[in-house]
Design brief:
The complex is a heterodimer of chains A (about 300) and B (about 60). Chain A is an alpha+beta fold and about 300 residues long. Chain A has helices at about 10-20, 25-30, 30-50, 85-90, 100-110, 220-225, 230-240, 245-270, and strands at about 60-65, 80-85, 120-135, 140-150, 160-170, 175-185, 195-205, 205-220, 230. In chain A, strands 3-4-5-6-7-8 form a 6-stranded antiparallel barrel. Chain A has a 3-stranded mixed beta sheet with strand order 2-1-9. Chain B is an all-alpha fold and about 60 residues long. The chains are: A alpha+beta (about 300), B mainly alpha (about 60).
């Protein structure tokens, strides 16, 4: 039974606010002490988890690459098969802070996949390798990091691009590569801050003859990766980079979501045990034969109300 | 990367969990704080006991 001393106002509206934001229902009801506890504690655990996991532990779906195509999810055309991330069931309970996952899931579904043209200039940091075709079967591969600058050969966009990659090879020597030819960019919406890129480069003496390609990653805009679905390859990368911090981050966000379920229920139905001013129950002493009841003790009020 | 410092993640995390959990059990601020404190001490005590046992077995 709801305690009449608690100002529930409209419990359904409170429920809505509680789902939108941790402690939101209690702020609406004017239960400020509990609202502060819920907002501070639950959001602190959630934000702590997000920071520990490089803002990446929350995502609703895991995408699976089709092994027969031989591409990563980023480089596949169309929509890959997807499955629900089990952890998201707990994370979603935090409400508003996890809503971007749902939005990104829909954007991911509508994403056509690999991008094989460039509509405007692209400048970004680059991490990856350069593959040069050798005279014998196989290729020479060298790791390179630096800055890549590309632009389409035609105004308004083209599948052919020109540009440069300047940086350093893994042995410390300078790298300056003139790029030109076809480009392939990973899908626009994907749960990784790094976007895959493959771009050919030409023989300087014969500009129609591609002699190799740079393969690596460039930066993806925050709005296109935050809480977006990702594949197991990206999860492996995260585990490789962050180690057990990523697991800890995921657990923190799960805990925050599960705690918010308690807050949502409290906003709708009130505290689970009692108001908190009840006296501990006696051990049925009054029922003992021969015991005289103290006439000064007040009769208990039904429902525990004062 | 985590090492021994991971243990200290438990202290603020336990405090937050205890506060949010007991807030969902009672309405009175004094009762919430008192119950949260008791729960916090018991939980940390349990963790220390658990870590001690694990440490004994691993040494």
């Amino acid at each position: 039974m709801k305690d009449p001393r608690i100002p529930f106002r409209n419990p359904f509206v409170a429920l809505g606010f509680a789902v939108l934001f941790p402690g939101g229902g209690h702020w609406y009801q004017g239960r400020r002490f509990k609202a502060t506890i819920y907002t501070v504690c639950i959001l602190a655990i959630f934000i702590w988890g997000m920071v520990l996991g490089n803002l990446q532990p929350v995502y609703s779906q895991t995408a699976h690459a089709d092994p027969s195509r031989g591409f990563t999810v980023q480089m596949e055309k169309g929509r890959p098969t997807m499955s629900l991330s089990v952890g998201f069931v707990a994370q979603a309970l935090i409400g508003g802070p996890a809503f971007p996952s749902i939005l990104q899931q829909e954007r991911f579904r509508q994403d056509p996949g690999v991008v094989e043209r460039l509509d405007g200039p692209l400048e970004s940091d680059f991490q990856g390798v350069i593959r040069v075709r050798g005279t014998r079967p196989g290729s020479i591969t060298r790791a390179v990091t630096g800055t890549i600058q590309l632009k389409p050969v035609k105004e308004g966009g083209s599948s052919l691009v020109t540009g440069t990659l300047e940086g350093t090879y893994d042995d410390g020597t300078d790298a300056k590569i003139d790029l030109g030819g076809e480009i392939r960019l990973g899908r626009q919406v994907f749960g990784s801050p790094r976007r895959e890129i493959v771009c050919s480069f030409m023989d300087p003496e014969n500009t129609r003859n591609p002699v190799g390609a740079v393969e690596g990653t460039v930066a993806r805009s925050f709005i296109n990766w935050f809480q977006a679905p990702r594949d197991n390859l990206e999860l492996d990368r995260l585990h490789g980079t962050l180690g057990s911090s990523f697991d800890l981050a995921s657990v923190f966000t799960w805990i925050a979501g599960l705690l918010n379920l308690l807050a949502i229920w409290d906003a709708f139905e009130g505290p689970a045990y009692a108001y908190g001013d009840e006296k501990p129950e006696d051990d049925d002493d009054e029922d003992e034969p021969g015991k005289v009841k103290d006439p000064k003790q007040p009769e208990p009020v039904p429902g525990g109300a004062v | 990367m985590m090492g021994i410092s991971a243990i200290f993640y438990a202290i603020p995390l336990t405090a937050f969990i205890c506060l949010a959990y007991t807030a969902s059990r009672f309405e009175l601020p004094e009762r919430i704080l008192k119950s949260a404190f008791v729960m916090f001490v018991k939980t940390l005590g349990g963790l220390v006991l658990l870590y001690s046992v694990l440490w004994m077995f691993s040494s």
